[in-house]
Amino acid sequence: MTHRDDSPAASRLIPATGTVDVAVLGPLEIRVDGHAIEVSAGRLRALVAVLAMSAGRPVSADTLVAAVWGEQMPLDARRSVRTYMTRLRRLLGPAAIRSLPQGYLLFCRDVDALRFQELLDAAAAAADRSAERTLLAQALALWRGSPFDGVRAVQLEQVEAARLTELYLSAVERHIDLDLAAGRDRDLVGRLRELTARHPLRERFWAQLMTALFHSGRQADALQAYQSLHRMLDDELGVAPGSAVRELHRRILLGDATPGPPTAVTGPSAAVPRQLPAAVAHLAGRAAELALLDDVVQEADERPAVVMITGGAGVGKTTLAIDWARRAAASYPDGQLYLDLRGFGPPELTVGPGEALRAALEALGVPPAHVPTSLDAQSGLYRSLLAGKRVLVLLDNAADAAQVLPVLPATAGCLTVVTGRRLLPGLVTRGAHPLVLDVLARDGARDLLAARLGADRVSAEPAAADRIIEACAGLPLALAIASARAATSPRFSLTALAADIDAFPSSLDALASADADTDIRSVFRWSYAALSPAAQRLFRLLSLDCGAVTRLPAAASLAGVAAAAVRPLLDQLCQAHLLTEHAPRRYGYHDLLRVYAAELLEHTDGDPGRDAALHRLLDHYVTTACQAAQLIEPLRDPIKVVRPRTDTTGEPFADREQALAWFHEHLPTLLAAVNRAADTGLDAHTWQLTWALADFLQWQGRWNERLTTLTTALAATRRLGDRDEQARAHRGLGVALTKLGRHEQAAEHLRQALELYQELGNTVGQVRTHQGLSHVSERLADHRGALRHVEHALNLSGPAGSTAGLGRLLNSAGWCHAQLGELTQARRQCEQALTLLRDAGDRVAEAATWDSLGYISYRQGDTEQALRLYATALELRKAIGHRYGEAITLDRVGDTHEARGDLDAARERWQEALLILEEMGEPGADAVRAKVEPR
Fold first, then answer.
1. Are residues 207 and 139 in the same domain?
2. Model confidence over 22-44: pLDDT tens digits?
3. Which of 520, 547, 562 is the last residue of a domain?
């Protein structure tokens, strides 16, 4: 028996005390009291899966948003989560999900993925092989396909699915090992053929296939299987099978009836160094990086392997390297070498390759008097001593490849871990694995605080903990400094510590230290000092950008150079990890580095250099935004854009879609740029940026942002004395205030706009202002008054008006007639409007007219035709990116389904409209929400 997710009947059938079972090891399945619940909405499916994987533990709203939406999070993410939770409670029963201060808690009787892990743990602890095999079989039987099949959630897809799949395959391998030990070889051959075909790079399956074939009396087939593996690895990866498989192959060739894993052979050692420093007590948020390091160990069995851990100052490279090295030390019984190369610090303290080799040789037992004098001889002796041994070498804080290359072992079985602030291409081209560390995500940073201060102390003051994390920008070194202060004052609350940090004029001051090794500015300074002068200048200037991410043309404009010239400088900053390339040609640095760069800018460049760079940046945003605005709405009246400086780089767009995507990506930056221009006294830039944003903000229903930018622009136009632009700002404010329900203020701004347009003799402006006044009257239910304003606009426009302008007015008139019940007249005018608008290519107004015609058919009782007309409006509004219009049409489609008696379909459309309106913070969301709630 299956119930729809939004069916009222389903809600009644699910009792408040229902038991919930969730299965994610395959397509998502949800059962309440044994009844299957069909969940079709993608976000709901993702939320259920994320909550289920944490069943028994609350999940914060931030964690849910990050896991489900990733970087595409809605504007009001927490509100969207609350809306979805309301729907889930109707689905699963009101008691299934509880809201707690720490987040949302899902009560599940059973989650197959969690039961799978419990069975694996029980199998590992089983007293005998028979019990272990039974438990493994029970665990494997839970699998129905790929984990989270059909669930779109970033965290589940990128992390959990891979983790569970690896556990599954390891369990399959172990289960087969037990079957082989029990003599079930013949039964396994077919299955192992299938497994090697599906997982050709998993050598253990090949070894098991070879074993099963050999034990079945098929020695030739076993040898043929090895040859197939060898050819495949050579063709695909250019490598040979691992040592375990090669040893098995050798023993099968010799006819050994009991092939097994080879025993390790190690040579004698004059000295076994154990030089690893003590691990830092608290490592958090680095599970993925630790797993990658574990994977490289297997490669070291075949060839000398190298891992290059890079990242910015204070990001925890050494902490990670030492922590992992101590965990892996048992795999390297012949020794662990540790050398601090001091690559970023006073130049006189940097360790050269000769000094590093001498230290390594002495650690390996070579008397100082016997260490060769030449670098080549030292390197040769070092590699000879390591030949045939398993040694782990940790080279910490490397500045360049010249320090490292002579100290790299040349024998299989040895692994070298290198840390440094710059990626060393000389190592990567020789096969080193790059591992780039970033600042900690919020959850990892919170775990680090909890590890240092105690989980109870952090959970008792979550807001203060978040403020400390924010002030530290997720940087492990900064978090360590802050938590050390809290640890030394256990009587003081975290709230007091957060307030203390906020009291400093700069977050860098709050994290200052007398110890140069832990002082944030000192740690940053060594990386900055290693840059070229041009890269240092760019690092400082990037702090002027208005957004968190800077694209290549904006960076070129800041520097006043061509894009081709700025790219190598950006690469230099990225290699030093003073900047991160988040996506191709999109750069940013974390908040502490931004503060540091701004400090350097103030002390180094002075006002003239800073002001010139900011002027170039705003020139870039004005010219690019105005170009994009004209592309997304070609029919709008163009303006005369400020002439950019010659050393400003623009950003070309191939088509409308690129321009629209640019607005989506740059909206926070452009909103900040409006304020920056106003604060700097660049009034022309201020109102022109506001003009460029107008249509995009309107289509996205961003009325509060529209109101804010227009208020700023109005002040700028008054300072300029530009009355035409003052009128434009007043008119825009009237439209925004109307949408926000502030009708008296809207009418006042529109009247001021009308007076200015009349004084200027601007007929087009008067026509558009009357349209705005018509909308105010409509919102006040004065439909006759609204019609009078439209008719006045039609008279002003006359036959000489533009085709698109006349079409828009006719649609407005038709809408007013429809509200008055004059449906025949309404249809005639809207159909006339549609012809004109299609001829003019005005897709925005054309979509609105299809919507009007749908409403007219709805009012006439022809709901089938209404749905067809609304579908056309929806298709067009989606195509042009008019999200606000899309929500309005969806709401009306819901009304039409309700009139047809299909309440399920109505609620689906209303819910879609509500999600859009809530993301926009649209006041009209309340009216739609009332339709969605049970009546």
1. no
2. 898 999 898 888 888 887 777 88
3. 520
